[in-house]
Each structure stands twice: as C-alpha cells, then as structure tokens.
Amino acid sequence: MTVPDDGASAAARQRMAADLTAEHPSEWADAFASVPRHLFVPRFHQQDSTGAWQPLTWPDPAYLETVYSDTALTTQLDEHGVPTSSSSQPSIMLAMLEALDVSEGHRVLELGTGTGYNAALLCHRLGDANVTTIDIDPALVDTAAQRLHQAGFNPILAVHDGAKGHPGNAPYDRIISTVGLHAIPEPLLQQAAPGAVIVAPIGYGIVRATVTAPGHATGRFLTVPAHFMARRTGGSEPHFDAALEQSPADTRVPPADLLGRLKFPASVALPGYTSCSWRTQDGDLDAVGLWTPDGSTAIAHTSGSVRQIGPQKLWDTVEDLAKIFGDEPERNAFVLTVTPTRQTVFYEDADGPSWALPATS
Ligand SMILES: C[S@@+](CC[C@H](N)C(=O)[O-])C[C@H]1O[C@@H](n2cnc3c(N)ncnc32)[C@H](O)[C@@H]1O
Predict the structure, then answer these.
(1) Pocket test for ligand 1, best of 76, 229, 233, 360 (most atoms within 8 A of CB)
(2) What CATH number does residue 293 fall under?
(3) What is the pTM of this model?
C-alpha cells in the first residue's frame, strides 16, 4: 500500500528538513524538504522490547512520523536477523553531505546505494549526470534504481564492491562512503580528481580527507559519531570458547570504557573490531567481548579479569588507549594521513600517538 499524496507526507518532510537545519542554515535544506524519504523506505524494521525485529509500513500511524524523523531505518536483515542495509540517520547524512562541500558541476561517487535516498539528495543538488552510486547488493541496486526513477532521478548505478570504486566514470571531485571502512581504499584515491574531497566512515568516526597529490590525502575526523554498517567482506567469528580456556589476567580498565569513552579510539587502533556485551539478570554489565577479523578475541569481566587469545592481544591495546585518553577524546582531534604506502591516524599532531590503518581495507 502506498502513502496517499494528501499533503501529510510533504508537511512531515518539510518539518524534518526545518528541524535538521534549525541550528544553522544549510544548502541541503531544500533537498531534504523536497526528496520523499518514504518513497525510498516504504517499509523498515524496528526492534521490540524482546529484541525481535518488527516491520513497520504505511498505514501504521507511527510509519510516516518515524520516516520523517531523525532516525536510522533498518531496511534489510539477513537470515540471522543482522541488519544488512539501512537508510542512515538524516542528521548524520546532513553532516556528511555538508562536509562533502559540493559545488555545481561536481561529479560525485557514493559507496553504498542502499535505499537510494542519499543518491536522490545528491541528484537533487547536482543533477543526475553528476552522481554515480554503487552497492555490493544487486537486489538493492535494482530496487533503488526503480525508486529513484519513480522520484524523477536517474543517476548512474552499478553493482560493485565499494572498495574498487567505479573507474568507468572517474575522475570524481567528491567521494562519499555510506559504508563503514577500515581505511581509504587505494582505487578511490586513483579515481579522485586533484583536490577531491573524500568523506567516509572509518571505525566509529567519519573522516573528511582532501586529496593533496596522486595517492596522497589528509584530513580530520568530523565531530559527529558514526556507526555505519561495515563493508561486507566476510570477516571471522569470535573465538569465545577458546578465549575462556585461557588463564585470566588482571585488568584495571573497566569493560564499560570500551563501550563508551574508548569506543572511537579503539576503532582506529583495532581496525574492524566488533564488540558485544553480557549482562546480569538485573541488566548490569557483566563482561564485554571483542574480536578482530584475524580471529583475535578478548573477554573482559567487570570483576577485573581478562582472557585473550589470537595473534593480537586486543585488551592490551585497550589498556594502552586507557593510558592515553583519560576522558572521551574529541573526534576532530584525530587526523588521517594517506600516502601511497601508508595510512596513519594521528591524535592531535604528527608527534602525538598514532595508529597505522590496514593497507587494504
Ligand atoms: C547504511 S547503508 C547505505 C545507505 C544509503 N546510502 C541510503 O541512502 O539508503 C550501507 C550499504 O552499504 C552496502 N554495502 C555493504 N558492503 C558493501 C561493499 N563492499 N561495497 C559496496 N556497498 C556495500 C550495503 O549493501 C548497504 O546497502
């Protein structure tokens, strides 16, 4: 069933655009007020109090209100109930689009077509011919193409691993990733025009890097936090059983710190890490687990014990971070530097703490 064209959706859309831009005027206000998000997200999933996913669609009274609110909407789940596509939170989309700093005539590559909504915003601003959007999921690209067409937009769409970009339409003046990356994939640097701006989630932050020379880029992280879906590459599973067989060591770092103040620095120091938590029946934190794509796994208990296994001692890195950062650091104090041989994140300046990002992401 489709949303009736009775003015309610237009009013909700304009309200969302006004709320998003209330603090400061934005060149993207008109795009958010004009592009119908509901057309790209006719149905989404929300978790109920038991954690089960429930679909929400028109004419549920909450549907239109939620679609036009500052909420990320999960649009696709895999067979295990893990989200595989979503329409990102509009305020984060706005922050990324503003950081992209587009001008008329700029050619943009978007990684992660998803619903097509962000591509539609780009088309509204720059025109169809200047927008290329790619996703690894052919069914998503197909559906997004239909919905974009229905909304009056016809960007260039392709099915590709975002890490390879889309050389056919290069060079790009601007590259925006709506897929979580561990570093800037080298093909994107090759496809970037001189002076191009790349805005991309790396770990739990979003970097805005300017291409300074072929293969070279540098820039700061934005202040906004980010939690984007990781690029689908087929990482490894945690080895909790094997970790639990290890002798425990003592730790003075509370496990809660990994979920809070150290979350972003850990995502830079341990690219691609995943964490989970266990809670007591009262809902209090009992332990956190973390693992990286190489299979390294750690479990830290609130009792002060930690067990680790694998090529990297992950909790040792968390303890190192705890020594550097007394409080949660500002994300924009972190700077990414990319050369053809190395990608490094520095804290505060080139003499400060630094972490090497993986050569291939
Ligand atoms: C947060 S969603 C994108 C939101 C989208 N821009 C929108 O406006 O709806 C992330 C998308 O990244 C895609 N993705 C995951 N791994 C990818 C990869 N390796 N290359 C390209 N896209 C990928 C997913 O299929 C998913 O659609």
Answers:
(1) 229
(2) 3.30.160
(3) 0.94
